[in-house]
Design goal:
The protein is mainly α. It has 21 helices and 2 strands. One of its GO terms (cellular component) is membrane.
């Protein structure tokens, strides 16, 4: 009986792969660009998330060249609108920062600090909106690159097989990075890659400097791997899955599923050892969201719906249980940290000062990248004198302060576009429903975590997240394209 179930599932998987390859094209040039996209993501992650100026500029330049090369390839009709929105958003952001930093722009009033400097120096100055124009111009590549990465992913991932292949690369890469982080933490706790580890020595940070950044990346990886495992288990009885694990003959799906399940466990273990309270909590919330959305409603399912519609949810809940179990076993230090500090965190003391700076600079902002220059004037002495606040530990509040009205405008466009595409994917992609569910869960994770952190300001994480969401949206838009084609064929006279 088990062998029959295994054979039936293998036939279903082969049919899914044939269906997923439909629409695949582009030849060797597109394949080379997809390999380049994967390489750029990896390069952006490994050197501390590309936080250094040299690594940051190199990886951003690589994504810009890749986007330009991808623009020369043919595109699917379903991706034209989101790609156009991504590129227009990047162009708007670049233009806005240029207006902030360019001297003599009379259309925008200069920051008041320039008038004070004129009085002190007793000489005329060409004032700008930005308090440090050179700094604002320098951060343009890192701010525009995620939009280019998202557009490039939509350009190049033209079939389900290609999109799932990119997600598999991202998930496996994240699992390997997590394993590397655990090994280095266990045997060389004072080392970060090839340099000395100066911060968070008691926590796993993988290839990043900050444990919260590592937690965000590991959480995204867990969601991607959970989606892949849910797809492979879709429509499969649990005894069939066990039979595939124990089958003696060769089976790529069997080994791949076992490998991905092991990577999820490794990532969960590493996530707990980051001791990031917000990272662990936001990952748990994201997994719960994934479990709720991955369910295929019985009235829309076909076949043995009573068994099939719970499979993706069971996978997600299983991952959540694994995360909780690992947390209870190895998260003693994290629980102790949460118990001892609770909500008594210095970052919450800084938020009123940052809000005051954002209010004073509204609606044009203080200039992109100038938080560390402006904030000291608003720092409350009651928050303590220790530490240098070069970031706000609140992605959206810092963006509101530095970019002004452009920040909510860009967020509105980005969230509206992603929500619309992923919601459509939930509706039309029955076989790959776990992919849009994972995309929404990733969006929940980074949104919630960055309300108290700055993970999306780390170029490597921002680029990896953009490509992940691009791959998820490619699967969703592929479903819309198939639906339109099927409707056209149905409307033709026989």
């Amino acid at each position: 009986m088990y062998s029959a179930d295994v054979a039936r599932h293998e036939r279903s998987s082969q049919a899914a792969r044939r269906d997923g390859r439909a629409g695949q094209g582009g030849g060797w040039y597109a394949a080379l660009l997809r390999a380049g996209l994967a390489a750029c993501v990896l390069i952006g992650l490994v050197p501390f998330g590309s936080t250094g100026p040299f690594a940051q500029n190199v990886v951003c330049l690589a994504f810009a060249l890749l986007a330009a090369a991808a623009a020369l390839t043919s595109r699917s009709e379903s991706t034209v609108r989101p790609v156009r929105l991504a590129l227009l958003s990047a162009a708007f952001l670049v233009a806005w920062i240029a207006l902030q930093a360019w001297p003599g722009m009379t259309m925008l009033p200069p920051n008041g600090i320039w008038a004070q400097a004129e009085r002190l120096l007793d000489m005329p100055l060409a004032g700008t909106v930005s308090v440090s124009p050179a700094t604002s111009l320098a951060v343009i590549p890192s701010l525009a690159a995620p939009f280019l990465a998202f557009a490039t992913a939509l350009w190049l991932l033209r079939s389900d097989v290609q999109a799932l292949g990119m997600l598999r690369f991202l998930g496996w890469t994240g699992g390997v990075i997590a394993a590397f982080g655990l090994v280095q933490f266990g045997f060389f706790p004072d080392t970060l890659l090839l340099s000395d580890k100066r911060a968070y020595i008691d926590s796993v940070t993988t290839v990043f400097v900050n444990r919260n950044s590592a937690a965000t990346y590991l959480g995204v990886t867990i969601l991607v791997l959970s989606a892949l495992l849910a797809i492979e288990m879709r429509g499969m009885r649990f005894r069939t899955f066990a039979a595939m694990m124990l089958a003696g003959r060769r089976g790529g799906v069997r080994y791949r599923s076992a490998f991905e399940a092991a990577l999820i466990g490794i990532c969960a273990f590493a996530l707990i050892l980051t001791k990031s309270r917000a990272g662990i909590a936001s990952t748990g919330l994201a997994l719960t969201t994934f479990a709720a959305l991955a369910i295929e409603h019985p009235e829309k399912a076909t076949g043995s719906s009573a068994r099939r519609w719970l499979r993706p949810a069971a996978v997600a809940l299983g991952m959540l249980i694994v995360l909780c179990a690992v947390f209870l076993l190895f998260g003693e230090q994290t629980m102790l940290r949460a118990k001892s500090r609770g909500l008594d965190d210095a970052r919450f003391c800084t938020y009123p000062g940052i809000w005051a700076a954002a209010r004073d600079a509204w609606p044009f902002g203080t200039g992109a990248g100038n938080f560390d220059i402006v904030y000291p004037a608003y720092r409350d002495p009651a928050c303590g004198i220790y530490g240098v606040w070069d970031r706000a530990h609140q992605f959206y509040l810092e963006g509101l302060m530095t970019l002004g009205v452009a920040m909510p405008a860009l967020c509105l466009v980005a969230y509206w576009t992603l929500a619309k595409i992923l919601r459509e994917g939930l509706r039309v992609r029955r076989r790959y429903r776990a992919v849009p569910a994972a995309g929404i869960a990733v969006l929940v994770l980074v949104t919630v975590h960055d309300m108290v952190d700055f993970s999306l300001q780390i170029p490597g994480i921002a680029l990896a997240t953009a490509v992940t969401l691009g791959a998820c949206c490619a699967v969703c838009l592929r479903g819309r394209h198939r639906q339109v084609k099927d409707g056209d064929r149905a409307s033709r006279p026989s």
